[in-house]
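Q: What structure does this chain adopt?
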Amino acid sequence: MHAKTILFVLISVFLVFIFAVSVLIGLDLLYHQKYLTIAGLNYRGYRGKVLSRKKSGEISIVMLGGSSLFGYGVKYNEAIPEILESALNAPLGNKDKRKKFSVINLAYNSEGSYAFYFNLHDFDYLDYDYVIIYDGYNDLGIGNTVAYRHADPVFRIFKYMPILPMIINEKAMFIRHGGKIEEAYRDKKVAFAPDQKDQIKIAAIENSLKSYNAIENILNRIKKNDQVDFNINLLTADPWAWYTYYMRKAIDYTLSRNKKVIIITQPHISDAHRDQQKALREMLVKVYAGNSSVTYFDLGNSISLKDESLCYDGVHLSAKGCRVMAGYIFEKIKEEVKYGYYK
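A:
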């Protein structure tokens, strides 16, 4: 084969690859816009509208947590971070000279303390001033390594969060579980056997992921994911060692960036949750006592998760529940973030 022919083939393959990537990006942006309100993550990887560059005098707060903070089951503007932002920016009168606040929802479904360090690192460019950690439920088991965004090589390299894989996977899950997508996410066994027509649909849906997976595999080889750095032997003496270790890692990273961190205990969900949060408080006192950049608030007894008007499934807050919880958080943090003061 002549050199010119080889060059032509290589250029053709490259152009086809670029065209495929361009089509995928175009579709991805279209679906990001379509599902912004209900599906959550924007193309930058956080929930809500994409923010413009941080303005002079603006105070930026990022919130870390799992699905209860993310706002599973409610629209993005009904979730705790959006409501908290509105409360912090509510007018104080004609002589209101406060700085503007932005509250960014970095939570995601199933993420626990392991993910927090990665999220803080990956979103450094937001130049946040405060970090609020509101979680615990997803670390009631041992070894939760879910870090949804950081696990995606496209996001790690380009800070662009694809939505197409999630939508395609959800469509397949929807068919497999007879339309019961929430139960599929919660690992509940659903008695449903796809017929031949549904099996064909599932095969077609999964086949549509091949182009993205091919790109993802290339990028994974370029920049591999980080490894777990926890000493598993610590669990023999302390069942909450995993949780407190990764909470401390997130806090230490925040402090190393000269930011302030606020840790908030969620409404208690079980006795195990109470034990976990007790271990957290003991760690905070032992390691950070006297450090003015680390603040802790206990909202464990703030609301009852058995109140169906506030919590629709025993875990996730309703729109009303999010408003109530955001109000509690606002009252706790408003002095901490200099609410009402201009300096």
